[in-house]
Each structure stands twice: as C-alpha cells, then as structure tokens.
Amino acid sequence: KTAQIGELGVSVVQLKEDLSDTQAALLEDQKYLEELETSCSTKTAEWEERQKTRQLEMEAVSQALAVLSGDDAHDLFTRTFNPSFLQRSSSSSSSSDRRSAASALLARVAERLHSPRLATLAYNLKLDAFTRVKKAIDDMVTQLLKEQEDEVKHKDFCTGEFNTNQLQTEKKERTKEDLLASIEDLEMTIDELAKAIDELNAEIAEMQVQLKRAGEDREKENAEFQTTVADQRETQKLLKTALQVLGDFYNKKTASLLQRQEPAGPPPPAGFETYKNNAGSGGVIQLIQQIISDAKAMEAEAIRSEEDAQKAYEDFVKETNASIEAKSKDIVEKSEVKARAEGDLVETKEAKEAVILELEQLSNYNAQLHQSCDFVLKNFELRQTARDEEVEALRQAKAILSGAKFEEFLQKV
Questions:
Q1: Is the CB of residue 229 less than 8 Å from the CB of residue 303?
Q2: Core-most of 58, 86, 109, 167, by most CB within 10 Å?
Q3: Contact call for residues 130 and 401 (beta carbons, < 8 A)
Q4: Mean pLDDT throughout 365-380?
C-alpha cells in the first residue's frame, strides 16, 4: 500500500504539471485565437464588401451597357461627340480601323469571359479618344493586377488559416483526450483510495471489537484464577488444621504409653490389653499431606497460567494498538492523497471544459473560413486564368491602338 501511495503521488504530481502546461498553452492559444478571429472577421467583412460592390458594379455596368448599346444612343453619340467623322482624311480612317479592331477584340473576350468591364471598354473605344482609351486600359490592367494580387493574398490567407485551424483543432483534440484520460485515472484513484480507507476503518473497528472482547475474556479468566487460588489455599488451610489435630492426638498418646512402667511384685490381675493407635491412622495423615501437596501444585499451576495469560493479553493489546495506529496513519495519508486527487480532478475537469469551449470556437471559426474562402479556393484557378486573359486582351487592344496588326491576335483570341 505504501508503494501504491507513492506511485499515486508521483502520478498526481505529473498530472498537475501536465495540467499547468495545458492551461498555459490554452491561455496562449485563446489569445492567438481572439486575435485571429478579429483579423479574419475584418478581412471577411472587407472581402464580402468588395464582392458585394463588385456585383453591384457589374449589374450597373451591364444595365448601362444595354442602354448605351442601342441604335438611337449610337447615332446620338455620333452626332454629339463626332460631328466631323464623315469629313476625316484617310489617316483618320486608319485610326478608325484600329479602334474597331481593338473594340472587336475586347468584345470577343468580354463575351467569352462574361466581363462587363471589357464590354464597356470595347464600347467606349468607338467613342473616346485614343489617349483616354489607352489610359482607361492601363487603369483597368492595374486594377485587374491589383485584384489578382489581393485574391492571391486572400487565397494564401485562407490556406494558412485552414491549416492553422486544423493543427490547433488536432492539438486541442489530443489535449482533450489526455485530459479525459487524466480524469479517468483520477476518478479511479479516488475510488480506490475511498475503498482502501473504508477497508482500513473496518479493520480498525474489528480490532477495537477484538480488544474489547479480549479484555472481557481476560477479566473472566482472572476472576476464575482468583477463585481457584482462593479455593486451593482454603483447602490447604483446612487440611493443615485437620493434620495438626490428628498429629497432636497421636503424638500425645504415644508419649503417655512410653512413660507407663510395670509395678514391682507379683503381676496384677489381667485387665484391658494395651491401647494401640489405629492401624490406618498413618495412611490418613499421608493422604491429607498428599492432598495438601496437590493443592499447592494446583495453586502454582494456576499462578503460572495466569501470568502467561496476562502476558499474552498485554502482547495482544500492544500489537493491536500498534496496528490500529499504523492503519490510522495510513488513513490520514490516503485521505490527503485523495483530497489532492479530488482537487486535481476539479481542475482537470475545468481544463477539459475550457478545451471543449476552445474546440467549439475553432469549429465556429472554421465555419467562418468556409463561408469566406470556399468560393475563392474552389474558383481560384478559373478566376486567375480569366483575369489573365482579361489583362492580355487589354494589352493586345492597347497594342492594336498603338499600331499593331489585328491579324496577329486573331489566333490568340
């Protein structure tokens, strides 16, 4: 049992150290998670706002394009912004051809990619001056590249956050399993200690009962001893008195017979015969003496038995009290270990609840990430490719406006 207590003590110390490390790590992870959730919420809000704004922009551009693409609008814009179009020279005709070629290129790409921005630019090419159109192309390319860069960053952010969330979740799951195992061990330890304490209390109670019974038996034995010794001594006293009486009588008679002498002269007439002691008197006296000796022997044997019984009783009392003291000390030690284990159990359960709460937070954050990132991750390559094609089409359109031949780009579109 002492070895078991030592092992339990070492286990409790190790569990407390593990609990302290887990709680410290939990505080750090919670702080990091709070910062991460704040950052992710901000980015998610910004991303959703940008998506919403872009969608509204696309809808507005599509509606505006539908209005501006009508025949009436085209004739009106031609009369308003280009009244001398019919009087242009042959060089103007060349510029118009380049403008039309670039517009056609952008229109094809816009139709294939479903890009309202390219469609709008393709339409503006028919109306605006080259300088404004080129600047618009450059601005759009810059915007597309910026969007592409932001989307790459957002994808990297999502990928990193998903990985971090997964690692943290796995770590917390392991911590949770460790805490559950610790709780099970602590509960088992507490149960075993409680049973051991109950057994020790039962053993102490039984030993106390045995002490009481032994004391009662000792009192009875001593009372019997006192009676036996008293009886033997009284018997010896009576027998000695009887022996004294008989001895006095027979000794006196013998003396008187020895003193009697025959008178001088003729013998006297015949009378009683000479009185003689009873032939059995010697046997009676010997018998009484033997009984006295037996009584003394019985008294001595009773005294020895009493001394042995008293010594055995005292040894039993001493050993039992020592055992009760040892078991009582064992109860105190086990109760202390049990109390510490119960305290550790409370702390471990609290740590488990904290880890479960953090796992819930990680799960909620994971759901937020899916809401913010699934579309980007799923369509990333497609969106990147489409945006690359938009940028390439814009650059080709600008090249055409700058004098490149339209036929060179027909195979690429």
A1: yes
A2: 109
A3: yes
A4: 90
pLDDT of residue 39: 64
> Which 3 state secondary structure label does DSSP give 410?
coil
φ and ψ at 266, to 5 degrees? -70, 155
pLDDT of residue 133: 64
**Contact, 98 vs 397, CB < 8 A?**
no
Do residues 236 and 296 lie in contact, with contact meaning Cβ atoms separated by under 8 Å? yes
The least confident of 98-102, 285-289, 342-346 is 98-102
Q: Is the dihedral of CA 297, 301, 306, 308 positive or negative?
A: positive
Exposure string for 96-125, b = 16+ CB within 10 A, e = fewer: eebbebbbbbbbbbbeebebbbbbbbbbbb
Contacts of 31 (CB under 8 A, 6+ apart): none
List Cβ neighbours of 189 (8 Å cut-off, separation of 6 or more): 8, 11, 12, 337, 338, 341
354's enclosing H/E stretch is helix 281-401
Identify the burial level of 382 via C-beta atoms within 10 angstroms of its C-beta, where 0-12 means exposed, 13-18 middle and 19 or more buried. Answer: exposed
Identify residue 353 by its one-letter amino acid code.
E
**How far is the C-alpha of 394 from the C-alpha of 141, rounded, in Å?**
7
**99 contacts 122 by C-beta, under 8 angstroms:** no
What is the torsion angle, in degrees rounded to the nearest 10, for the CA atoms of residue 157, residue 159, residue 161 and residue 164? Answer: -140
Per-residue tokens: 162? 């998903």
pTM of the model: 0.52
Compute the average pLDDT of residues 296-317.
92
Q: Kindly compute the dihedral angle of the four CA atoms of residues 171, 172, 176, 179, in this order, to the nearest 10 degrees.
A: 70
Give the pair of three-digit tokens for residue 183.
């709780």
The pair of structure tokens assigned to 143 is 């915007």
Highest-scoring range by mean pLDDT, 43-47, 66-70, 155-159, 266-270: 155-159
Q: In this structure, how many other beta carbons lie within 10 angstroms of the beta carbon of residue 127?
A: 17
**156 with 304: CB under 8 angstroms?**
no
Task: Give CA–CA dist 196/284, Å, rounded.
Answer: 70
Q: Tokens in use for 153? A: 């960053």
Distance between CA atoms of residues 342 and 336, nearest Å: 10
| CA–CA distance, 10 with 4 (Å, rounded to integer) | 10
Residue carrying the six token digits 């998610």: 44
Look at residue 272 and tell me whether its pLDDT is greater than 80.
no
Give the integer Cα–Cα distance in Å for 382 and 375: 11
